[in-house]
Write a structure and sequence with these properties.
Elements: E1 5-9, E2 11-12, E3 76-82, E4 85-91, E5 100-108, E6 120-123, E7 134-143, E8 146-163, E9 169-184, E10 191-193, E11 199-201, E12 206-210, E13 241-244, E14 249-251, E15 263-270, H1 274-286, H2 293-299, E16 303-311, H3 320-329, E17 337-339, E18 341-349, E19 357-362, H4 364-369, E20 376-377, E21 380-385, E22 387-392, E23 397-401, H5 409-417
Parallel strand pairs: 15-16, 16-17
Antiparallel strand pairs: 1-21, 2-19, 3-4, 4-5, 5-7, 6-8, 7-8, 8-9, 9-10, 9-11, 9-12, 13-14, 13-17, 15-22, 18-19, 20-21, 22-23
């Protein structure tokens, strides 16, 4: 499993908190042009408890011995679930003009992570933020300039009592949970207790949030639609053109109506992204030392691939010369690598909160046609390279999205190839 690297985007239209919004613990956040080592992790899930715990435990209202803080009053709660990742968010206020505290329950269940995917009892002991699969954090005193303190729970149990499908509820209790004040390394995500730091006791806290659904289109047409029917899953993606490393224009709809190409795998990469380099190296190795669209089709009949280069090693616009050198260094056919950088920037709508957007140059064209399902998490909007999407070439239907994975990638790909 390729470890993901986080890239933060600036927000347009509204101000959000700027607390630490690391997207995947154990997957270091690469500074532009920087290197980061992946962190091996072990699971922390216990055997699910078949007996339902007491769901009527209330948050303590009085100080608890040994605890600097012992309650968390939430006025806003939300929960989202995707394949391999789910997160509960609770906030002490919805007023961005004052410092806000946030509670996060982050559940990672992909690769070597073994986080919760159903009801049961899960221990929080024995891990730091870099290695946890089930992670409970409090970020305190958050404003637009950052959060004053971060607390990480390494004592107690997370007891999940209800986990429905989208539109249902997520309910959980924190039993015997204590969170210590920590600092979190921005590169490794390792959490280190602060000497003389505070302790936030969360024993007895109950969370209850609606599981949000994601937009999925009902406008699918049997054939390609030049302007597209929309930008969400099941929409027919509108045509666009990007320039490859050879200087040729590559149009998405060139293969519309193809009956031999069953799946188009779009992979976005960046020159500074070490995880992308590892992923591409594995692909190249599996295809005999070099990669082209012809080799992909020969090894996996029906599969086509397009690699989109969004940034150079400095995190800015890749030139055609850089694109060519990147492709050559990675043993990629320059014809299959296209550059996507919008000089004027593109406004990409967020899935949550609705009605808001980010401005981006990198991947502006692709994401304006294939919405990446970005959300605000913990005060920031984060994305990661490599980013993937799957389309059906016959009608350019949007089938699978990296941040809205309703089914595992392998399942979606195999379903397309078997058509």
């Amino acid at each position: 499993m390729v470890m993901r690297l986080v890239t933060l985007f600036s927000l347009s239209s509204f101000a959000l908190l700027a607390c630490d919004s690391s997207s995947t613990p154990g997957a270091p956040a690469d500074a532009v042009g920087g290197d980061a080592a992946d962190t091996a992790v072990s699971g922390d899930a216990t055997t699910p408890d078949t007996s339902a715990p007491d769901t009527n435990v209330s948050t303590p209202d009085v100080p608890v011995a040994g605890c600097d803080k012992s309650s968390f009053a939430m006025v806003d709660q939300s929960f989202e679930a995707k394949t391999g990742f789910a997160a509960f968010r609770g906030y002490s206020s919805t007023d961005n003009t004052a410092p806000i505290d946030s509670l996060s329950i982050e559940l990672y269940a992909s690769g070597s992570y073994t986080g919760a995917t159903t009801t049961g009892t899960y221990t929080l002991a024995g891990h730091d933020y870099a290695s946890c699969s089930n992670c409970v954090l409090v970020r305190a005193g958050c404003t637009e300039s950052g959060c004053a303190k971060t607390f990480f729970a390494d004592v107690g149990d997370l007891v999940i009592t209800q986990w429905d499908a989208a539109g249902g509820r997520f309910k959980a209790n924190l039993v015997g949970v204590t969170a210590k004040e920590v600092t979190i390394d921005p590169d490794t995500f390792a959490s280190t207790p602060v000497a003389g730091g505070e302790t936030w006791c969360l024993d007895g806290l109950t969370v209850d949030a609606e599981i949000k659904s994601i937009p999925v289109s009902d406008r699918t047409q049997a054939e390609c639609v030049a302007d597209g029917t929309g930008v969400y899953l099941n929409d027919n993606v509108g045509n666009f053109a990007l320039t490859n490393c050879n200087g040729d224009r590559v149009k998405l709809h060139d293969d519309c109506g193809s009956t031999t190409k069953k799946a188009l795998w779009i992979v976005a990469t960046a020159g500074w992204c070490t995880a992308c380099s590892q992923f591409l190296a594995e692909l190249v190795s599996n295809h005999g030392g070099s990669l082209s669209r012809e080799k992909v089709a020969a090894q996996t009949p029906g599969l086509d691939m397009l690699i989109v280069l969004g940034e150079n090693a400095q995190g800015v616009k890749p030139s055609q010369a850089y694109c060519l050198s990147y492709a050559q260094a990675k043993n990629l056919d320059p014809a299959m690598v296209v550059v996507d950088w919008s000089d004027a920037g593109e406004s990409i709508p967020l899935i949550d909160p609705g009605g808001f957007a980010i401005e981006t140059n990198s991947l502006g064209t692709v994401w304006s046609k294939i919405n990446p399902y970005l959300v605000e998490e913990g005060g920031s909007v984060s994305s990661a390279y490599p980013w993937w999407a799957l389309l059906r070439p016959y009608n350019m239907q949007y089938i699978w999205s990296d941040y809205a994975a309703l089914v595992p990638f392998e399942q979606a790909l195999n379903d397309l190839l078997s058509e």
